[in-house]
Amino acid sequence: MRTSYSSLSTYQTCPLRYKYQEIDKIKGKKSKEQIFGTIVHKALNYMFTRSPLFPTLDEVLDSFSKNWDAGKDALDITDAEKNFFLENGRNIIKKFFLKNQPWNFNILDLESRFEVLLEDPETKEIHVLAGIIDRIDKLGEGSYEIIDYKTSRRMPSQDILDKNLQLSIYHLGLIKRWPHISPGEVKLSLYFLEHGEKISTKRNADALEATKGELLNTIREIKEKEKSALFPPLAGSWCAWCPYRKICPMWRHLYEKEKAPNDIEIKKIVSEYFSFKEEIDERNDVVKALQAKIHQYLDEKGLERLFGDDGYITRRALEKPVYDLDAVRNILEPIGKWQDALKVDEKKLEKTIKALSTADRNSILKNIIEMKKTVSLAISRKKVSDAGEDAETQGA
């Protein structure tokens, strides 16, 4: 299997989008943010290209403006938005140039392509992980830095950066290219252009091995889904810029409804469902309030039963023993009854498995005998707009 970080990231975000993009090969229209980011990257790549001299700031800005003018017409946005992106891009580049004059860096490569071979120890299959690193610098003797530019506004916490899969993959790519490099001598950085801030992390040899295990787990998961062709959609904030909304089962009805406004019956059913669900929720709140008042009255009067015109209400108190589990285990285990007494809390089990090492997690996942599927309906009381905004409140 040949794949990349972006493909695997797409799968982890939404398996159905991965299917549309990587298996069905349905071309999706790039978002304005993606096109803007690509043009900014081109300008920065040009900025650090010496032939034979580095370009001036004006030359870099001119290069960006020309590329933006060539690409903006493909965007379905207003002239005001186009002008905003143009000015924002020029401001980003100017701020970056003044803080990072190209002649102050020892740059080894730009837009560096790499391939990492991953062998699955279980199936013996060889998978190829390919990608492109924005920039590789040499910091000193035997010390290197990988830099990836980001045009997004949100900066991750240090904890999230320390687990960033993209940087881990780039690190693997660098070591594959230059095997003599020690993992501890590689600095991994994300440069957030909007803020003019660079945040960095590192990986040791154990972390890189764990990354390989994580990648193989994801690849195995994808290959299993390919057998059944079941790639479920996952809705979230990312839906707002997904190019497949009009064919996605999570969103398709929104567009079909616009084309077929006479679909009265299902609209009536949806409205009734909302109405009854809201009524049930309101009644549940009323019931809880009445229960609280009844408990209060019973406590005040020292009663356990109340009588009314419609019947009576009895309070039943149930006592549940809390055992010293270590002591109980010492008694039951020698006689072979301890396992019979255990009851698995599936939510706690899932949480425990996620926290395990890659090797231990893989050992447990081999013992899955089936995937249990449950189906429920969730309602969003906030009217969903075409922008794909998340609902403010939801209910089952």
Automatic annotation (TrEMBL):
Pfam families: PDDEXK_1 (PF12705). This is PD-(D/E)XK endonuclease-like domain-containing protein. It comes from Candidatus Giovannonibacteria bacterium GW2011_GWF2_42_19. Residues 3-249 form the PD-(D/E)XK endonuclease-like domain. The lineage of its organism: Bacteria, Candidatus Giovannoniibacteriota. Coiled coil: none annotated.
